[in-house]
Amino acid sequence: MSTPRRSETEETRERTNASERRSVIALVSRQTLAERFRFACTRCGAAWEAGYDVAHVEDGYGHTRDYYFTHGWSCPDPTAPDAVLCPTCGRHRVQVTAVTTPEQERVLAGAGAVT
């Protein structure tokens, strides 16, 4: 006795569902925080602050990755080399310092991190 052949639609649907299950399993946690950074230009001395929404994502394999957004748009990590331009003189080399807010300190303390 032979088993009935499944249609292509059923096979495609099964592959799609399996792919979606893997995607859900792969993304274990996501936490989005508002973070601020202080910048100082090494050429002209201009100083400014900017806020970013940072999505801290951990997959099912223990790897973590941060995704940065400003004004709703994806952007590079502001601490990466040459990621930020001085708004006054256009120089790429700026000093970056993270500004820790009381909310971030509470989150870090709750996660067991040393502040």
Identify the strand order in the major beta sheet: 4-3-2-1-5
- On the 0 to 100 scale, the average pLDDT is 77
Structural class, please?
alpha+beta
Question: What is the rounded distance between the termini?
Answer: 68 Å
Tally of strands: 5
> DSSP helix count?
2
Shape: globular
Poorly predicted spans: 20-25
Order of helices and strands: HEEEEEH
Largest sheet: 5 strands, antiparallel
How many domains? The number is 1
* Fraction of helical residues: 10-25%
Q: Determine Rg (CA atoms, Å).
A: 22 Å
Give the DSSP E fraction (strand runs of 2 or more residues): 35-45%
Short description:
Helices cover 24% and strands 38% of the residues. By secondary structure, it is of the alpha+beta class.
Please give the structural blueprint.
Layout lengths: L7 H19 E15 L5 E13 L4 E7 L2 E3 L18 E6 L2 H9 L5
Antiparallel strand pairs: 1-2, 1-5, 2-3, 3-4
Note down, in words, how this protein is organized.
The protein is an alpha+beta fold and 115 residues long. It has one domain. 24% of the residues lie in helices and 38% in strands. The chain has two helices and five strands. The protein has a five-stranded antiparallel sheet. The longest helix is centred in the N-terminal third of the chain and has 19 residues. The protein is globular, with a radius of gyration of 22 Å. The termini are far apart. The relative contact order is 0.18. About 5% of the residues have low confidence.
